[in-house]
Write a structure and sequence with these properties.
The chain is built from two helices and four strands. By secondary structure, the chain is α/β, with parallel strands linked by helices. The strands form two sheets. Strands 1-3 form a two-stranded parallel ribbon. It has a two-stranded parallel sheet with strand order 2-4.
Length: 65
């Protein structure tokens, strides 16, 4: 996360990508999302930014859409 926090702060757009496991994002990506809440804890005067984002997901299965 020490590499992700500065990149997240500097980014204009965030594009996470994940395969779907049981129709949900990977555990690694879920953990990263959860830990982004802590970014405001690094500096009490810092507010979590509102970023443009796109989520890319991939799945395989019969009868999708």
């Amino acid at each position: 996360m020490e590499n992700i926090y500065p990149a997240y702060k500097a980014a204009d757009v965030v594009v996470p990508a994940s395969p779907l496991y049981y129709w949900f994002i990977s555990g690694f990506l879920k953990n990263a999302f959860d830990r982004l809440f802590a970014i405001a804890e690094c500096d009490p005067n810092y507010r979590n930014p509102k970023k443009q984002s796109i989520l890319i997901r991939a799945a395989e299965g019969a009868g999708l859409l």
